[in-house]
Design a protein that fits this description.
Elements: H1 2-10, H2 13-55
Keywords: Membrane, Transmembrane, Transmembrane helix
Transmembrane segments: 20-42
Organism: Marivivens niveibacter
Amino acid sequence: MLNYIKNFRNDEDGAVTVDWVVLTAALVGIGIAVISTVSGGTTAMGDKMSTMLEAQKTATY
């Protein structure tokens, strides 16, 4: 039983899993932050382009 406890204490597989979970969560958080930051600018730019294109006249021959 004591040998089992020593092996369990020295086992590092769970620590690697926790590291990957934390790293993945950080990447997802950064992705969400980037999307929320960029989405406002792209919406405004799309609205400006739409307004500009609607104001253009089509040449007819």
